[in-house]
Design goal:
five-stranded mixed beta sheet, alpha+beta, 5 strands, single chain
Amino acid sequence: MGEKMQKRIADAKAGRKEPEIKGQAVDDIMRFADDTRHMIIFDVLDHACPVGDKGERLRVFLSDEGYTDTLASQGRSEMKILRHARVKDGALSYDTPGKAFE
């Protein structure tokens, strides 16, 4: 790829602003709770979503039961999970490499 094309791509990415992540901070105390097994970042797509307001992007730490409930909510198109990480003793292990939204 040419140098001009790389600059155009970089400029386009710089102009695109990611939504602010609300909810729990990446270093929230819930990250270290004994029953926390998952961290997700998701977009709220519908007012029926039990957490957040339509249009928000949130980060939450969840137990296995909470994560199951979240998958059901996604199945009803109330939200869309963007990133998932397993949590063990506070350490995050993302499912796929890439932007961690931290």
